[in-house]
Amino acid sequence: MSIAEESGFVGEMHHGTGWYCFPTNRFKTITLHAFWINQLSQEEAALGALLPHVMQRGTKKWPTFQIMEQTLESLYGAAFRADVGKIGDKQLLSFHLEIVSGQYLPGHPDTLALGLEFLQEVLDHPLTEGEGFRAPVVEQEKDLLRRQIQALINDKGQYALTRLVEQMADGRPFGLRKLGRAEDIERITPESLLEYYRQVRRTRPFVLFAVGNVDPEAVRKFMSGTQGETAAGIAPIVPYTQRFHNRTLIERQDVRQGKVDIGYHTGITMTDARYPALMMYAGILGGFPHSKLFLNVRERASLAYYAYARLDAAIGSMLVGAGIEFEDFDPAVRIIGEQLDAMAQGDISDQEWEFTLRAFENDILSEEDSASQLIGRQLEHTLMGGGLSGPGLIQALRAVTVDQVTAVAKMVSLDTVFFLTQSEDGDAAGKESVQ
Amino acid sequence: MSLMTQTFENTEIGERRIQAVLPSGLTVVVIPRPGFHKTFATFATRYGSIDNAFHDPKTQAVVTVPDGIAHFLEHKMFEKEGGGDAFDDFARLGASSNAYTDYTSTTFLFQTTSHVMENLTTLLDFVQRPYFTEANVNKEKGIIEQEIRMYLDMPGDRLHSNLMRALYVTHPVRIDIAGSVESIRTITPEDLYTCYRTFYHPSNMILLVIGDVDPEQIIAEVRRNQEPKGYGLQGPVVPVYPPEPAGVKEKHVEKSMVVSMPLFVMGYKNAQTGLTGPALLRQEITYGLMWQMLCGKSSPLFQDLYGQGLINDRFYARYGGSTTFGFSALGGETPQPELLEEKLTQALGRAPLTAADLERAKKREIGEFIGLFQNPEELAYAYNSLFFRGIDIFDYVDTAMALTLPDIEQARAEHLRESQRATSVIRPQDN
């Protein structure tokens, strides 16, 4: 066992396989979260998205979805979720299990052992038939995945953001959707999916996180008995480089509210020494209710209900978003631009500075009270090969100067403005009928 | 400390709470979370969007106010006399703050990792010092209008809103929590003061603190804050709800929007209303277990519908409500709403339920209940809503354990009535 970082995690990573444990009595449940880490590619994204869904439909020991669900219910409603995530240009095949700590249950069962056994059964013994997964299951899940891909349009905020990042990426992996494309699902067969599973198991980096009342030794033992040979370490996430400047794209739909989303290049990722200064920059600009964007777009101009800025620390971008009236596009973009100008000129009050610093301190310390946030930040560090967190990050933020913030402000460069607005024919009233 | 505080324990799950009722009628509750960095506190009033008509506590006259005013009032409470707002006061103390309004309550909250006492004082003071002017009320209308428009573009939100308008004939739960763009335009500072005086009296409120704190110290601090404010006792607020018939208003409501696939929800209105306290808790858990057994992921019905592609894993079936209303809602995305409705209505009444199903459903329910205590936000939401309905949260496990299969069968017979059923569908719009 190695590393006991300031992060509070104990664990190790060798040749692309590893585990991290955060032992604490703070939580009522034990959270186990396992990931296979994939390079995002147009060819394989749909396969990677489909695999976890098929794997959660049955194993050798629990051959049907119903038996799996009944097993979870009997484990005091253990919550199991297999799906796909994305950080930068990585697609994450994710297996998440949360189970109540044995100490709070009748008979005090060893729920860590039960949880690990469950995960192992899912990861190592999926239900197969001949040289493929079960055909009806694959067909059902293909259909559901296709629908899930199409359902992005139901969430306008998410849709507009996804379209913006896609446009900025211009075909590069960080802009690919984690679910893949509907047209790529078609040619997946039960056999090709099983072949893909074997390849993933053999070659993809694998990490298991465990948070709660857990014994790291039990997790270490579990890991030494599982996962065979594998690939080299995790390839670093490729930061984004800017291909467009000051571009405006407009898309029309039958909507009641316009969404303006703006993408910027920062050139600074989480492992960069300037990252704490960039955090202060984005926080003062639009991270909180006291920030410039919220105050000027919402409180002063009453243009929006929400207005924010947030960083994608993995690839070095910043996104600004607001929901506005269709005709307020010009004033909203102008006011947002003015706030960035103010940041670049160092027009930052003591109050803005102090409030932002304290808000970050609050956020960073609070992360430790949530198993999923603890795992999220440790995963990011694992993928990025470093980065500050916890008290170390707080110290670094306190050391940032206004000059450092204006210096990073000068690196922030407008890439693309994306505006989702109403259809040309104007009348946005939906067709409604009551029977 | 001489103040009368009481400690309640639930040793099996390792939880306790410390509680006091101040002379003004304000209830203060502390739930310790050893080892946590953050402290989460809520100050909540039993006043939600359904309370749009009530007896004025002074004149006893019935007052009717514009729809959406409880939510509007929630926004406006952050405004301070002399400029600035409460968000800034919390930000100065390193805390984040927020608020939310639902059908039956309004909640103000902060979350902090430092200066707990100062933040607590800030929370109590801003909620107890209203400041509404013509100008600040009018300014808020633009912001809330954008909030309402955002909801209008959310298909799931429209689906639910239409279901409520179909299920209910007169009860104000049929109106959107935020009201409408038209209704909020008519709100005046006087309306806000009337609602404030009526519903924000301490006797109608609860202060809940969850964190690694000293409960006695918290309670003493709150008392010190409250005493000089001189709140006298106020009788209970009496909201007025029009009589609601047992049957639904519409059987079926549809709307088209930009969605990839139809959204479907089916609702059952509960006619057995009027319960509070342990009886209400028992009813809610019974309905919850019934839905888990009938169409939870482990049920044959779920498996059948999933296998046929009629539902996905986001399909839900749950019961929610309060004393004056209650409803079940089940639904999700489906390619064939009519077929899904037909399959559901055929199966729900006659799907066999077994003792083994009930045992598993109880285990799941208890596991989820225990897990609640590690999430202060969810715990506070659950605690406050149970408190406002006269329910002791620590009765939860025993109440669930005591339920039997005949209880579930009886719930099915009384709740799943055709005359109390309605459906709402959002269909993809042809472009």
The helix count of chain B comes to: 15
Largest sheet of chain A: 6 strands, mixed
**What are the secondary-structure elements of chain A, in order, as H or E?**
EEEHHEEHEEHHHHEHEEHHEEHHHHHEE
Radius of gyration of chain B: 23 Å
The overall pLDDT of chain B, averaged over residues, is: 95
Oligomer: heterodimer
- Give the percentage of residues in beta strands of chain A: 15-25%
SS-derived structural category of chain A: alpha+beta
Percentage of residues in helical conformation of chain A? 40-55%
**Ends apart, CA distance between termini of chain B:** 69 Å
Order of helices and strands of chain B: EEEEEEHHEEHHHHHEHEEEHHEEHHHHHE
* Percentage of residues in helical conformation of chain B: 40-55%
Overall form of chain A = globular
Which value, in Å, is the CA radius of gyration of chain A?
Answer: 23 Å
Strands of chain A, count? 14
